[in-house]
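Summary of Year 1 activities. Much of the first year was spent building the evaluation harness for sequence design. The harness presents a backbone, in tokenized form, and records the residue chosen at every position. We chose the following record to illustrate the format because it has been used consistently in internal testing since the harness was completed.
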């Protein structure tokens, strides 16, 4: 059929095709290129005729293209993706397939191809942004996230170099410190360290950053002569020599948090790029948004840790007053009794006071050692949450006389073994605070630590009313409206939760599959505050600890029915 159409019709079809069609010959020369192919390459066929086609591709891809010629002679007709480099420095990605054909005039290699630049750029951009978002959600080091963003800027756009600058105290202070490079695209560490040192040497605050007055919105600011501007100012000339790439212009993108400028993303551009594409500028703006989010997240975590540490210091101070200070007061009383017994010769009173003095002093030593242990830095290597909880139970018994049972589901223990050490520490401290409250304030005689999995179905801890309960025990029994396999065990229409919980209408934010649940239940007097400032520093500290590790916390406390503190940790 095709042969019957005639060569002129076939040529007309090829010439009008929206796909590129080419033929190359011996010595890799262009023998034919249709108009669609010429538009992609950026030069007319008349200009390319007889030229080595390899010169139109990125230098690092040419050896691979030569190897593919051999594969095509062996019958390979697969699809491949390569990068065309135009005369103006722009790059286009094309997907192509070809073969080798012998003709009376020699071997030729026809190929078809089309431009996939937009598709593959969109894939890379989506991948880079998704990776940054995932690492941000995991609480990864913001510097690692920002380095990855800077490298994505270079990999996906025509930027030679990407830098992210922010104040040295952007995370822990007011953001008025000197500028530092907190992320860059130099994964090979060839120029990065020198430029980092050069910026630090300037000791330049963000308020004095050159062209800061231009950074008023979200959009990038394009400076075609940025290199010349920096060289003209003795204070910034040293920055120009910090990289070994021949850049000329730049794109500056502000980093903002809570409406204020906190840093700037700088993309250095080669001389031939005088007007970045809309896709490039929008991608840089998206990367700046992600970098801003990473800084904001790190700042919030730092503030939360600081607040938690301050609250914990207050608690320890309260402990010192409640236990050690009280013990010292009792010791003084016993010393006065001994002094009086010596004056009166009362042997029985002397022996009783001496024995009491020994017991009280020993308890004071035990309490002080326990408090000092809490003040020491926690070892983060090789944490075993279940072992830590069992150890905690023993310490609470020795210190307060509170009997503590530890109930661990084997499957939950398997998941717990894979938790990060810092997460284990937060969970253990939450349990410790709950037991402290049970012993000191709830007048409890017994408590239970439980480690289970939540959210595997409506019959476990899930279902409507999972962490709250709608009316206490009177509305349907202690197991919920339908028993332990019905509408929920700790919730539903009949629990000890009732109106005294801090949860919502059933969950602590939606109990889904794969949630680790750590609960501390006591038999104390109950009625403890469960929300707001009335909950005190201890409750606030527990909530902040769970926030730091990506979880949540609920408290149920009914008068006369004890208190239950439950921490929920989503599992990967």
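For this record, the design step produced the sequence shown next.
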């Amino acid at each position: 059929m095709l042969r019957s159409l005639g060569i002129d019709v076939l040529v007309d079809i090829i010439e009008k095709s929206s796909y590129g069609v080419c033929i190359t010959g011996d010595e890799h020369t262009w023998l034919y290129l249709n108009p669609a192919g010429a538009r992609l390459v950026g030069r007319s066929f008349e200009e390319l005729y007889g030229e080595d086609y390899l010169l139109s591709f990125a230098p690092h891809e040419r050896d691979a293209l030569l190897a593919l010629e051999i594969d095509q002679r062996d019958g390979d007709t697969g699809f491949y993706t390569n990068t065309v480099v135009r005369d103006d420095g722009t790059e286009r990605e094309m997907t192509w397939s070809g073969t080798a054909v012998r003709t009376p005039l020699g071997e030729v290699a026809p190929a078809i191809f089309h431009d996939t630049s937009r598709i593959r750029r969109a894939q890379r951009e989506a991948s880079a942004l998704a990776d940054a978002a995932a690492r941000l959600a995991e609480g990864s080091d913001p510097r690692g996230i920002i380095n990855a963003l800077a490298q994505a800027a270079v990999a996906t756009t025509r930027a030679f170099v990407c830098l992210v600058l922010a104040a040295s105290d952007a995370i822990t202070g007011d953001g008025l410190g000197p500028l530092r490079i907190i992320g860059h695209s130099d994964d090979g560490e060839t120029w990065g360290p020198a430029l980092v040192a050069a910026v630090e040497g300037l000791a330049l605050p963000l308020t004095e950053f050159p062209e800061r007055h231009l950074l008023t919105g979200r959009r990038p600011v394009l400076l075609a002569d940025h290199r010349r501007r920096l060289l003209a100012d003795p204070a910034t000339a040293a920055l120009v020599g910090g990289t070994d790439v021949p850049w000329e212009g730049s794109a500056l993108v502000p980093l903002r948090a809570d409406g204020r400028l906190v840093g700037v993303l700088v993309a250095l551009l080669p001389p031939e790029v005088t007007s970045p594409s809309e896709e490039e500028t929008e991608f840089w703006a998206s990367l700046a948004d992600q970098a801003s989010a990473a800084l904001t997240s790190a700042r919030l975590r730092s503030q939360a840790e600081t607040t938690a540490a301050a609250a914990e210091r207050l608690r320890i101070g309260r402990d010192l007053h409640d236990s050690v200070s009280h013990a010292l007061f009792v010791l003084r009383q016993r010393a006065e009794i001994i002094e009086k017994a010596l004056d009166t010769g009362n042997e029985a009173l002397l022996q009783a006071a001496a024995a009491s003095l020994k017991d009280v002093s020993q308890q004071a030593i035990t309490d002080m050692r326990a408090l000092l242990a809490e003040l020491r830095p926690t070892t983060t290597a090789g944490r075993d949450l279940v072992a830590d909880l069992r150890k905690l139970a023993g310490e609470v018994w020795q210190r307060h006389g509170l009997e503590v049972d530890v109930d661990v589901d084997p499957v939950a223990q398997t998941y717990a073994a894979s938790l990060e050490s810092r997460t284990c520490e937060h969970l253990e401290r939450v349990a410790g605070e709950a037991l402290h409250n049970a012993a000191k304030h709830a007048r409890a005689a017994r408590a239970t630590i439980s480690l289970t999995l939540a959210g595997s179905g409506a019959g476990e801890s899930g279902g409507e009313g999972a962490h709250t309960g709608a009316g206490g025990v009177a509305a349907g029994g202690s197991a919920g409206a339908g028993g332990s396999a019905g509408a929920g065990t700790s919730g539903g229409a009949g629990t000890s939760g009732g109106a005294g919980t801090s949860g919502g209408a059933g969950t602590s934010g939606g109990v889904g599959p794969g949630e680790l649940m750590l609960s501390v239940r006591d038999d104390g007097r109950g009625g403890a505050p469960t929300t707001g400032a009335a909950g005190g520093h201890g409750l606030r500290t527990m909530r902040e600890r769970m926030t730091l590790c990506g979880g949540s916390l609920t408290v149920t406390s009914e008068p006369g029915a004890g208190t239950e503190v439950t921490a929920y940790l989503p599992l990967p």
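Residues 147 and 183 are 4 Å apart (CA to CA). Quantitative recovery figures across the full test set are reported in Table 2.
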